[in-house]
Amino acid sequence: DVLCSDKTGTLTLNKLTVDKNLIEVFAKGVDPDTVVLMAARASRTENQDAIDSAIVGMLADPKEARSGIQEVHFLPFNPTDKRTALTYIDSEGRMHRVSKGAPEQILNPAHNKSEIERRVHAVIDKFAERGLRSLAVAYQEVPEGRKESPGGPWQFIGLMPLFDPPRHDSAETIRRALNLGVNVKMITGDQFAIGKETGRRLGMGINMYPSSALLGQNKDESIAALPVDELIEKADGFAGVFPEHKYEIVKRLQARKHICGMTGDGVN
């Protein structure tokens, strides 16, 4: 009687587009084309996921993603770190590292985090209100010249907006499920405002909560007094979740005697 659904690729197409005109630059001497190139370097050039494919596809020639550099080490995406990185050597023999991923994961190690944090969050919120996900890009030099080296200070260089359109049949499928008495909850790793906007577009309700609410850390007094089990019961969805949250939500619903399904990537 309850169906928990991932958002990306389940309720949405996972066919991402990036509007280059909306890219926000955060470093001196950098333009949107540089942000795209750095993001493309931090992408796989084969066996791509939807984000890699959208970004590399923005280059005039996909080969630019590796031209003039020698790849040393690629760190693939995983659901915990939520970022990718490429360590490479340029044509002059110097080592560099680029990374792209969830904004918080890219912002945290930035050397000037305190100076740019407010603007980064303002841009993320601006994108999210339009249903756009944010992808952050950063760069560092690795003067030690070894792939294991932590490298120099991380430069946060830009934020890119990603649009992932809802699947054409999602709203109808959700409507039919609700009519059959199945309660549909969206559980997404994406940012809160995006989850809410996607839920609104799909007619799922906007009773959406951040993952912090699951840990009893919610600042909203209207739900602070609610036990977590009841919060999960009444919510239309949760955003900013990690795989362990998905598992916990299903476990708690089952403990309340719900027959609970999970569709999408499961717990990743």
Automatic annotation (TrEMBL):
Pfam families: Hydrolase (PF00702). Its main location: membrane. PROSITE patterns: ATPASE_E1_E2 (PS00154). This is Plasma membrane H+-ATPase. Keywords: ATP-binding, Magnesium, Membrane, Nucleotide-binding, Translocase, Transmembrane, Transmembrane helix. PANTHER family: CALCIUM-TRANSPORTING ATPASE. It is found in: Membrane. Coiled coil: none annotated. It is a multi-pass membrane protein. GO terms for molecular function: ATP binding; ATP hydrolysis activity. GO terms for cellular component: membrane.
